[in-house]
Amino acid sequence: MENYFVIDNEQLSRVTLIESLILSGIKSDQIIKNDIEETFKKAIDGVLVGGFINLDSIDEKILIKLLDISTNSKVILLMDRTCSIIEKLNYPVLDYLLKPLNTEQVHRVISSHFKSFSIASRNAPRVHSIATNGYHRPSRLLLSESGRVRVLYKNQIRYLKAAGNYVEIHMNDGSKIFHRGILKSFEDKLIGHGFIRIHRSTIVRMDVISEIRSNEKGLLKLIVDCGTEFPVSKKKNDLIEIIESSI
Fold it and tell me: Which of the four CATH numbers 3.40.50.12710, 2.40.50.1020, 2.60.40.1190, 2.60.120.200 does domain 151-246 have?
């Protein structure tokens, strides 16, 4: 039987993770809850599909040992933006989630990484490509602002919109960051790295695209997972080809 694990001493986020796994169709008895010894055993036995580790809930040496053993498991880390341990990790993890968690964020990660996982894929590399060319850790976007540099993880950005002399950066958690500049300045950093420019005013992360529609006049509209709609200036076939080639 395939197993998933949740190592998280923070009750609220642990409950969110477990409930989200169950709602995604994973049975309760497939989930190992905060039992590191059992997690190690399942990883060694090769029946550990993957799961979540809260970096505040595990010793660094144990974490590295678990990542070392779980070579065919999908490991997602929960972390604070200020967490420094990731700089020390040379082991590939699948993804990161920033705390505090929200259900939408967790559902999207489970749907992307776990739902389609099969026994046949266990011998495949642990790092899975999602609208990118594959990665060992989420790449970052550095924003220089008034004497400071803000660090954003690209997989936490949903889309960017031009807004006059500013760019609105919309995050997975619903927050919005205003950065002084033009949208074009983000193209080299994002286009071809999991993002697509669908209009002169909009850049979207490809793995949040949920639907493409066209009206009777043939005008396209793109819808992302949070329900926001955008006009599209690209031809439909060109847009679909770009999205398909990134999967």
Answer: 2.40.50.1020
